[in-house]
Amino acid sequence: MSAAEVALEVKDLRTTLFLREATVDVVRGVSFQLREGETLALVGESGCGKTLTALSVIRLLPDPPARVTDGQVLLAGHDIRALPENEMRSLRGDTVSMVFQEPLTSLDPVFTVGDQIVEAITAHRKLSRADARAMAVDILKEVQIPSPEKRLGDYPHQLSGGMRQRVMIAMALVLDPKVLIADEPTTALDVTIQAQILDLVRAEQERRRLAVLLITHNLAVVSQVADRVAVMYAGEIVEEAPASEIFANPQHPYTQGLLSSIPSAAGDRKHLYTIPGRVPDPRALPPACLFAPRCPYAISRCWHEHPELEPVSDGHLLRCWNPQPFTALLALEPGEVDRRVATSE
Amino acid sequence: MLLILLISSVVIFYALRSAPGGPSGGGVLSPLSSQEVRQAYEKRLGLDQPVYTQYFIYIGHLVRGDLGTSLVNGSPIVELLATHARNSLVLGFTALVISYVIAIPLGVLAAVKRNTWVDQLAMGGAILGMGIPNFWLALILVYFFSLRLGWLPSAGCCDPPQLIMPALVLAAEGTAVTMRMTRSSMLEHLRDDFVRALRAKGLPEWQVIIRHVLRNALIPVISLTGLRLGWLVGYALIVETIFRWPGVGYLLVDSVLRRDYPVAQFFSLLLILFVLLANWLADIGYGLANPRIRVA
Amino acid sequence: MADITIADDKATWEARVDRLWSTRPARWRDAWYELSRNRLALGGSVIVAFFTLVAIVGPALAPYDYAKQVLSDTLLPPLSKGHVLGTDALGRDLLSRLLLGIRISIAVGLGTTAIALVVGTVVGMLAGYYRGWVDRILNGFVELVWGFPLILIAVLLIGAIGPGLVGVVVAVGFVNWAGFARIVRGEVFALREKEFVSAARALGKGDLDIMVRHLLPNVVGSALVMGSYYIAIAIIAEAGLSFIGMGAQPPLPSLGQMINEGSGYMLLNHWLSTIPGVVIVLLVLGLNVLGDGMRDVLDPRLKGMG
Question: Which of A93, A105, A157 has its CB closest to that of B200?
Fold first, then answer.
């Protein structure tokens, strides 16, 4: 590993949802490190807690009902969990920025794009309006929006989806933050535009030595931009490794399941694989390993002892009692997997 | 719109004349007047002719700008229009301003501090405002402020002290409705995605709420103004009557009760026109307030 | 290799999940349960039930004839001997008049709203279901009427047919149906696209059948909520019109009328106007609160309709 500085470190983060009927942990003991110039992809199905993890980091959880109940979030070495709100606010947009999934609804429809970028600037810097506008034009140019001066006067609904997302990225980067959190930035976009946006993020990252936390459920996106990958399931990280390693040698059955459901990674399988069952209801969790009910390799231990995240090789962490090589899964016939899961053989 | 106006005018014309009892001519006639006196009076005013003839004569006059004169005191309706319309506008405008000045900040506060005592109080006030009949409220206010405390006059026009109570009463229901609308619109928009994105930019909370959320939330409230104007007309009828505020509402009620045909006809048509315009304005207002519709 | 204990553990866990999902009550049971827990609905219905009871049996239990004038006993204050609420300027017992007044208010409110509900629902249903030009015409009509101030129409109408309760009932019903039509139309518009309608049509069911059997039950909830509010509106309107002399004629004691009669005596005998007023406020409050409660339970979507 290079000696790059750790821009963001999360230790044992626990976020709890306080509902009328129950109290559930939706992020359980999540830990990871994010270095300068590195992209860490947080991957998983919807509902696994990845977005809530991101919101917990930047302290934008909807409270009520959600709250961080344990753990530390270290931004450049300082624990930001304990910061008073107004100090946290000055960090947001300036030191750590976030970009969201749906660019149309993330922009205020009644203000022009220019106004909104200028607003982001003047919230943190004492600049005249003209200077702020100049900065806005510059950043729009940088994200490759044509005729940026004219675009300043446009309303969000007048721009295409790809352009809107560029605007969002511009707004997030205009004050040169250390960390960028991107929550499904390309999910709402066309495939061709997706590639452009990802290239843009990559380029900006190199130019600014930016640390990027990328949230996604799309493995194709991961393969394009991620340096490291952390796979989340039911609020826990179940596997973490460099991107190349994850694709070549996935160890956790869930990761393997995710990979075999995309055509390219599955090789020449005739049938695509879907993981049987559903994400567990937080009110009725499996007693030990949370993935056990859906796992083709489950053994008795998986129902009695909760596996911890352990290193299995250099830089590769795994949370599983009975990992099998990927080839084993690929060799199974589709019906076979379902049968195994159903009878837990 | 014109069609509706035309139909309304016919309907009103016939309706008024078919009501029991004829005009009293401002004291010239009484129920005890003899047949001959009454007939002479009617002949002079052309009231003995068939109704449809009267109608066309009336339309003819209208088109030429001759609005007629009051049967009660002979004043030309044009004059009545000038004074009474102005009075009503003053009253209505004041009530409207009052209601917005109170309702919007209260609505925002109630939404932001949802379910706290502030919210409960505001909502409670709104329920009362909508539930208390305005004429009764008027009586209570008069009782306290005029009779008991002697601070405000109980009737008449046109000084500011005389304007306060009628305006407050007129504003009451509208304030409650506007406040509830603002609150619910705010609550809805507070959940919009862009709010989270704005906070992620590091904007101070008050800016997020007032500059952004409120601006979005006000769109339906503003477009409701047109409709509110229409409703205001209705309430004005009662409020003006109670406080003897000489506006169009007062005039209309009075003229209908006294069978002052020309006055009743003209002003009811005027009010209908006003309501139609207000409704139409509401549609336009929505387009103006919402840039998505405006620019597209 | 089969490991029996896994199957057991798994089965136990799956049973728990199942139990979680099967404790969801059916939709209507849900509604009743929530309704009885909702304090608004409860409070509102208590008040409304009370007044309805009064309306039905009250006048029969009245101590005096509401129209009987006893000129030697005028303007007695409340808690005088023989007159719990006092008497008015003509010596008529206030309590007796109040009881009849309540009956009149509720009858008018209920009556007009019933008419408005039926007419509005029919119109809304037709407009929402058939769409096209039927909808354009009907909806144009609805929008026109909806924006109109009730009082204005009422004054004109009563100008035509003369004062009296009939005029009030007609006038109020004339305007209020539009509110129902709007709501129903909106709902039908949305419901029509749902699968169960297409399914019904595929089975060859007729339009009328679909409208009555499938759409109507879904629409009833919102209609009821609006109904509560509109009864309140009707009651206030009737009171207002009676106040300015266009509603119930003397000696009929409409609450609004009583307030009017008492207005001249505010300085010394304010109870003549205050008491009927308080009754109206309570009744309307009860109805509004009941409406809010029902709305919270049956259709949270309507929360925006100030």
Answer: A93
